[in-house]
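To close the chapter, one final illustration. This time we ask the reader to focus less on the individual chains and more on the assembly as a whole: which components sit near each other, and how the overall shape emerges from the parts.
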Amino acid sequence: MRRFWALLGLLVMAASAAAEIPSSERRSGYDLMGRELRAMQDDDTANPGMLWVLEGATLWKRAAGAAGRACVDCHGEASTSMKGVAAHYPAFDAGKQRPVNLEQRINACRVDRQQAPPLAYESRELLALSAYVARQSRGLPIAVTIDDRMQPFLEAGRVVYERRQGQLNLACSQCHDANWGRQLAGNVVPQGHPTGYPLYRLEWQSLGSLQRRLRGCLVGIRAEPYEYGAPELVDLELYLMWRARGMTMDAPAVRP
Amino acid sequence: MASALINVPARAKRGEIIEVKTLISHVMETGFRHTQLGAAIPRNIIRRFVCTYNGTEIFSADLYPAISANPFIVFSTVATESGTLSFQWTGDNGFSVTESAKITVE
Amino acid sequence: MERSASRREFLKIAGGVAAGIGLSAVVTVRPASATPAEMQEAIRKVVGSARVTPGKVKIDLPPLIENGNAVPLTVRVDSPMTETDHVRAVHVFTEKNPQPYVVTFHLGPRAGRAQVATRMRLADSQNVVAICELSDGSFWSDNASIVVTLAACLEDGI
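The assembled structure is written out below.
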């Protein structure tokens, strides 16, 4: 217990102005895992995340809502129409005049096009659909579009990332920019790139979204977690995807 | 909505040993966890997995709470003849799922 | 000195290590864990009075795993898997999980190869034991030890 506090204190002191990780040094959390977990991720017949992808494939073809439409009716085969889509979310939504993430985009389709009620955040169905769509971007580089409209939201996300929060008064940058690769209570601190979301986290024994992970981090530093779908979380997602630009998508990933 | 992922080669030579991989979605609640208020979460696991090949049982497993959520089981069998491999998982609370895969043996 | 000792006492009385940093008011109830003796008793129940000899069966377990919730386990037995000489069953046990049984695989000559794999839960760094039963009624064993690390920032209740 004492050692933990001392370590934390050291971390806090060591991480003064956390500089951005140079692009040549960016590494996915995949590289920090042991051989067995990497093998679990790489094998589609063993990766537990594939159960959600399989379910997503079924939901893609299922008619829903008053309009009686399935995703496939407008979008056709996901392997074609959804290729690269997840790699550039969060994306600007003209209706909302702000970026939305993939889950919000799926729900917008549900409400506006299918006339169906939106799926709850972290529900089985929403995870299945987002896993299925994200799977279609596997192997592609992350490429969020930052134009004049997106710039203020990117900056807002950066502010959240660099702001000290919670009872532990830690900023994301202190662990993930300044101390990645070091050990915290037996685990290696990753750089925190969202290349593999939604992913199967062994800690959750389930597939979960990036927002679930971000809320988990916030609880970990004893901060009040933002609600699912909160603008702060979407802005942070945008910043993280921008920070990981060019890195290869590998959803659904497996992480400890 | 239980989904299962089964991996059986579509074709094999007679006498060839084939590897079968199965993955099924199930929470495998151990019965040892408690809510934040201290109430026990009851056990809810898959207890038995059986594989039959054209009706004959060729492999089975008895599962306990120590098997991870979304149980993954890999085993092998000899490709004897063309037909159907059938898989059944049963467990607590009347859980029962059956899936099958066809194989062509030349 | 005095303060931290009494704080430790409080945590013990509260029934276990409170989540993560210890600032939370959550009461964590730790399940009773098995002991090596309980594992031996579970093995006895399966094996009866027969002798168990180390050998023939091999456990493949990573020496270290980042999270004990899903540890890949492979068990192989050196056996021709014929009608007259094959593996009937493979039993796996742990010594520190809340209960000692993990899984029993029932094989037979139709298996072709005595090799099975699954993913198991491990509550702590510990030993895992595999016992195989051959068609001649003999029992063979192997054991492997593994270090389990857990998530640093526990996030109950999200």
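Residues 5 and 21 of chain B are 8 Å apart (CA to CA). The domain at 4-105 of chain B is CATH 2.60.40.10 (Immunoglobulin-like). With these observations in hand, you are ready for the problems at the end of the chapter.
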